[in-house]
Amino acid sequence: MFSISERTSLDGNFYDGISEILSTEPNQRETNETFGKKFSRRFAIITATKILFPFKAPLKHRVPHAFVTFGYGGKMVTVDPRNSSASVIQIDDIKTVLRDPHSVRLIDAVQKFRGPLLVGQTSPHTVRLYIERQIKRIRRYELASESSFNNDVLDCLLMWQLLGLLVQQQGRVTGTDLARLLVENRSAPSEEAQRCHLHRGESCTPTNPSCEATVISQSYALCERRGYDRFTDLLLGGHIHEAIECALQDGLYADAMILARRLLTDEPAKLLEIEEQLLATRLRCDPLVTLLSVAAKHTPINPDSGCWRSHLAIVLANLTSQEAMEFVYDLGKVLAKRDCNSAADFCFLAVSILTGMNPFKIVEACPDSRVSRQHITLI
Prior knowledge:
Layout: H1 4-22, H2 26-31, H3 35-52, E1 67-70, E2 75-80, E3 88-93, H4 101-112, H5 124-144, H6 151-168, H7 175-184, H8 191-202, H9 213-236, H10 240-249, H11 253-263, H12 268-280, H13 287-295, H14 308-318, H15 322-337, H16 341-355
């Protein structure tokens, strides 16, 4: 592609070359081997340039077209200059164009919102009334929907409840308040949580329905007694490390931990080993694993989209450290990556409430992180 200046230069060079060729003697012109090459090359270039740039300057629009803009109060202003005599200005209601139920509900919600909200000027009752209306609207949708355990709907409801709590307590919200709100908001049991529940149930459910609970408890007590006897025999022989290993194999984690704490005071690594083996018996859906991992400044496993509330609640209720806030913020980024937008906004807003971070400040995501967003977007 050539610009306008390049095309002009090509035009001049073309005609200069033609004049130079025609000014030569006929016999010299015929014997000149480059005559055909020069002429054909320059003719092809200037012809292509004429086709690509037929005008001196490009036109933005070849024909008149209408301009549309949105005005105050849901009005749409259209300026139509296609009439040669005078332009026509038309003002319409936006509802005449957007007629689908979802857009109509959004327009009604925006028109009922008495904004903007100004600190010290807007009455809290006005804000609370608007929030309560949104919560009622979400609950009506939840009851009318086929699935009353839609996680997206529950996450949206949870976000509005948090905003209502902020207004009610005048911004003084603690981690315990957030945890209570998360626990009260019921959610659909995720597949991972169901597997965790089934795993726990298998250990206490008899294979034969006719078996009584006393038989199971006696069998468990017998196995535990045998393991405890082996543990005691090793201690009687003075084999402390072997006794601890035997206790870990038989599931006697409490006995192993007490023994290591009392007798192996110069080996703190042994206590950590016992703790790690104890946590290894827990499933990843257990919120206790998340709490202990965050408290130990380890990287916890990100919970799935269905059970993130319990993991977040147990951290907010018990920890206020920087590592805990980083876990909440990272959880929000993970949820945003999974398109759980309301859940991600809850995490970002929770960090803002507890640390004072601006949740609306745009944070540029690292290209390698593959995170969709790291802040609350305003739509």
